[in-house]
């Protein structure tokens, strides 16, 4: 007991000035079963690791035992229970501190609990949170206008015209898929122009339309049959485009960088040829930048550097748009917007003034050139560290992929042990694709934090070599 208590004190001593202890700031519902018995084996293990996963007899485990039976088991979670966040760090209920290289899966681009965002939420929550899409409010339109202005100014989607605001990435893609079907019907009232092309290893979401464009048997098989009319192509395969995309195609949905699929980057030539084929058959091009967009690659959109001919007709975003507050958006050009009529699509919560005011602030900050330049410098630090690790462990690290602060290390083995070893040394990392470690930290991560992350990653790899 005494040893545990001193561990906790050490963890809280490491907190930055002004950081709160969870017990002072958060009411955590705990069960009465939180009494702690410590075995000598646990004491030895805890002594060897800065952040050992909470043990079976910890307060964390007691809380999980109390709650888990009431939660649909859609996720397999590790033992820590997070209650506090600040910048690039998270704290669990036992006051262990973690450097978060996941940023809530590429969501918290401005870090956890960014003070300006917290202030804005509080202000708007006292002003107006929701009045429905039946009425105008000042923020849905302001966000839409800003997204169009920043998109065009960034050199991306030059003809971006209008925005549909919703609540998540899946919903943004769902709107994109519906809009494409509608455009196909307007262009060919026979209904023949309804096919949607997607690519292997894509991830576009879990709702039935977005899932139908996510050709991973793990996600699709339990819920088949999928929505009809979806075709799957090979990512980066220019040769197959002619056969794949035909006059029956109403749209092609593609991630310029596949996130969940393993941080796979589309070749510029592939996207240029893809766009050319779409134009040729009158199909829309839909870029899903839900994970890779909003300056994560060092440009406002991952496609911003592409020539105009390769710009999309539909562009979807979510994740970092709300920095943790749920929001998504579907950006379209006039060719699409003109064909969508009142009543074609809708949402109760989407576009509410609270989410939109927040996103308006976030978009203006993420569009700053200084932030984007810093992302590229930080990419350099990660890449230098990865190169060193690759030279140390050539049989483990096969490839480094990605751009900006969406980076992947392709390993030759299941990364689960490395992920756990890193977590138990105070660093959170997630996986992607097959045996890929994915790094999507806050875009405000500091040089020192990157160095800390790389050092701990090295230690975690070393600890897992037999
Ligand atoms: C590229 C991409 N599209 C769509 C989605 C789905 O977004 P959401 O989970 O917000 O529905 C994700 C989520 O990981 C994503 O990475």
Instruction: Give the overall silhouette.
Output: globular
- Provide the list of bound ligands, each named once: pyridoxal-5'-phosphate
Main β sheet profile: 7 strands, mixed
| Alpha plus pi helix count | 17
Subcellular location: Mitochondrion
Pathway: Amino-acid biosynthesis; L-arginine biosynthesis; N(2)-acetyl-L-ornithine from L-glutamate: step 4/4
GO molecular function: identical protein binding; N2-acetyl-L-ornithine:2-oxoglutarate 5-aminotransferase activity; pyridoxal phosphate binding
GO cellular component, one term: mitochondrial matrix
Describe this structure in words.
The chain has 466 residues and is α/β, with parallel strands linked by helices. It folds into three domains: 1-83, no CATH class; 119-367, 3-Layer(aba) Sandwich (Aspartate Aminotransferase, domain 2); 369-466, Aspartate Aminotransferase, domain 1 (Alpha-Beta Complex), CATH 3.90.1150. Helices cover 38% and strands 16% of the residues. The strands form four sheets. A seven-stranded mixed beta sheet has the order 4-12-11-10-7-5-6, sandwiched between helices. A four-stranded mixed beta sheet has the order 1-2-3-15. Helix 6 (115-125) runs antiparallel to helix 14. The longest helix has 24 residues, at 369-392. The chain is globular and about 75 Å long. Mean pLDDT is 92; it is low at 1-26 and 30-36. Bound molecules: pyridoxal-5'-phosphate. Pyridoxal-5'-phosphate binds next to helix 8. Pyridoxal-5'-phosphate (PLP) binds next to helix 8.
